[in-house]
Amino acid sequence: MNEPASLGATVSVMSGSTLVRSMALPPNGLGSLAGTNVVFWDGLDNASNPVPGGTYSISITASSSGYAT
Questions:
Q1: Which of 23, 58, 64, 65 is the most exposed place for a label (fewest CB within 10 A)?
Q2: With contact defined as beta carbons under 8 Å apart, do 34 and 3 qualify?
Q3: Which of the 8 DSSP states describes residue 44?
């Protein structure tokens, strides 16, 4: 990321248009820092069930409180 996500970030794993897993990443932690980040998905859905093999897409939403000036 170009800037840190000062309010954290959310990684959404999708199967087509269906949300399979949503992972909240806290501020100042892996996945919400400036620069290159790596986040691992354990292959489970939001109910901790294994998902079948297939093609999945991800979406990353970074949140920030903005700049004071």
A1: 65
A2: yes
A3: B
